[in-house]
Amino acid sequence: MEQFKGQPRLPKFAVPKRYDVRLKPDLAACKFGGSVDIDLDIVADTKFVVLNATELFVNAGSVSFAHGGSSKVFKPTKAETFEDDGILVLEFGEMLPIGSGILVIEFEGILNDKMKGFYRSTYEHNGEKKNMAVTQFEPATFKITLDGVPSELVALSNMPIQEEKLNGHQNTVSYVETPIMSTYLVAIVVGLFDYVEDHTSDGVKVRVYCQVGKADQGKFALHVAVKTLELYTEYFAVPYPLPKLDMVAIPDFAFGAMENYGLVTYRETALLFDEQHSAAANKQRVATVVAHELAHQWFGNLVTKEWWTHLWLNEGFATWVSYLATDSLFPEWKIWTQFLDEVAAGLKLDGLEESHPIEVEINHAAEIDEVFDAISYKKGATVIRMLQSYLGAEVFQRSLASYIKKHAYSNAKTEDLWAALEEGSGEPVNKLMNSWTQQKGYPVISVKVKDQKLEFDQTQFYSSGSQGDGQWIVPITLSCGSYDVRKNFLLQAKSETLDIKEFLGCSVGKAGCGGISNKDNALCSWIKVNVDQTGFYRVKYEDELAAALRNAIEKKQLSETDRFGILDDSFALSMARKQSFASLLTLLSAYREELDYIVLSNLITVMIAPALCLCCCIDDLGLILVLMFHR
C-alpha cells in the first residue's frame, strides 16, 4: 500500500461511473454513518482500489466487490486511510477481474467543526444553539439518499427530491440522480431554514435558504440569481443544466461561497442583504459573489477542470464574468471601474520576486489550497479580460460557447479553451496566453516617439526595483487623441518600432503636447497605451508623452479607468525606482479636480502611502500639497 502514498492523482486501473450514497447524519451526537455503492470499471490488472477519502472510518470487513460477470464476491484483506494524502486504499487477496462491478463500502465519520468534508455548522433558534450538517468536498453520476432526517428540518442536495418517506419523526429522503459531475461538487445540507423562491423565464426553480426570520434578506440575492441564470443561458448559448438552483446561507463557512452543482453554499455575508441596515458595498458584494458562483455552474461544473493545475481557469474566468454580469444588471454601478481593484491587487502580488505562475503544477493534495490566491483569481481574471479585449467581445463569446458545447459533461484543460478561441479568432491564442500563464510576473512597456516612429520596449517589472528576464507576447491597445482612434497589435519581441503615419494615420510635428499631428495637420494631442486598463502590464511614457497625458487628464479627456491606470503605473514605477518621484509629484497636480470615487481612492493611497513618506523628504511631501491644490 505504501506505493500509493504521496501520489498526486488516483491510479487509473479502476474508473467510477456512478455513486449510490446513503447517509444518516446524527446532529445531536455530531456524527454520521452511511454506505456507498460504486459502479466501478476495472480496466487493468490490480489487487488494489484507491479512492479519495478523509476522516472516515472504514473497516475491511464492511467492504465488498461483486463482479458483474459472476456471482463471486471479493473481500479486501486490508483497508487503510492515508490522511495526509486524502486517500483510502483497499487491498484484495487476488486480482480483480477486468470489467464492471459494484464496490460496496460502509463507513462512519464525525461531524467536526473544521468546515470541510461533511461538517457541522451552528446557529441559534429561539435562543437555543443548534447544529446543521453541511458538505464541502473522475466525473460520475450520484444517487443520494439521506436516512433519519428529523421531520422539522430541511434536507437539500444537488438535485430535487424524488421521494420522501416519513417514519415516525424522521424522514428518508431520496434525490433525483445527478448528471455526470465531479465528486467535489456533491453537496448535502440539513438544517432549519426559511426560504424565498422565484423562477427563471425558462422554468428553473430558484430558492434562497437562510436562518428562520431572515428570509427577506435573501430577496436581493434571489433577484440577482434569476437574472444571472437567464443572462448566462444566453451568453454561453447553453441552458442551465439542472431543474433547480438552491442557494444556502451558512453561518460559519470556510470560503465566501462554494459552487456545488445546483446547491450553492455561501457565508451569510456573501448572500444576505438587509435593505435597512446593510451598506451599499454589501449589495455589490452579494451581486458579484452570486454571479461568480453561478458562472461556475457552466464553467467548472458543466465543464470541469482536468486537474487542479487548471484551477486558475475556473476561478479567473468566473471572477471576470461575474463583473460582466453585474455590469449588465446594474450599469449604474460602473462596476468595471471597481474591477481596477482586482487588477491592482494582482499587479501588486505578481510584482514580487516570490510570485508564482498562474498555472502551478499540483503534485500533492495539500498543495491545492496554496493556489487559491490573487494570482489565480485576480491576475487570472485580468488576463482573461485582456484576451477578450484583444480578440473582440463577439468573437470571444462565440468561441466560448463552442468550447462549452464541445466539453459539456466532461473534463477540459486550459489548452482546450485556447484551441477554441484560436479556431474562432484566427489569432495565435495558445502561444500568446502561455506567455502569461506559464511564467510569473508581467512587463512594463516603455513608450517613446523618435524620428516619426513609435518605439516600444518590454522588461520584466519587479516592485523591488530589480529586473527579471521574462518576455511576453503583449496585446497592446492604444488610442491617439480620441477613443474613436483605437489600434491593437501584438508586441512579440523585446522591442518593436511602428511607423506613426502608417499605423495611426498621423505624422510627427513640433507643435502641441506630445508633438504629434494627424495627416490633416490637426493636433493629435495624446497617446494612451493599454486603453481602459484591460492589459496586465504597466506603461512608462517618455517625458513628452507623459506631459500630453497630464494635459488630457486636466482637460477631462480620459476615462476614469485610464486616469486610474496612469496614476497607478506612475506610483508603482516611482516606488520601484524606475522613474523619478518628481515626475509622480508633477502628475498628481493634474488630479486637482478629480471627482471619481475609484480614482480618488487610489489618489489618497498614493498620497499617504507609508513607503512614500519614508522615501520622500519633508519638502517633497509639502510639494504634493502645493501641486494638488495650487491653481
TrEMBL record:
The keyword Methyltransferase does not apply. Residues 526-605 form the ERAP1-like C-terminal domain. One of its GO terms (biological process) is peptide catabolic process. The active site is at E293. Residues 220-436 form the Peptidase M1 membrane alanine aminopeptidase domain. It is found in: Microsome membrane. It comes from the Eukaryota. The chain crosses the membrane at residues 603-629. One of its GO terms (molecular function) is zinc ion binding. One of its GO terms (cellular component) is extracellular space. Binds 1 zinc ion per subunit. Keywords: Aminopeptidase, Endoplasmic reticulum, Hydrolase, Membrane, Metal-binding, Metalloprotease, Microsome, Protease, Transmembrane, Transmembrane helix, Zinc. Its main location: membrane. The keyword Protease applies. Its cofactor is Zn(2+). The record marks Y377 as: Transition state stabilizer. Residues 15-141 form the Aminopeptidase N-like N-terminal domain. Zn(2+) binds at H292, H296, E315. It is a peripheral membrane protein. Belongs to the peptidase M1 family. This is Alpha-aminoacylpeptide hydrolase. The lineage of its organism: Eukaryota, Viridiplantae, Streptophyta, Embryophyta, Tracheophyta.
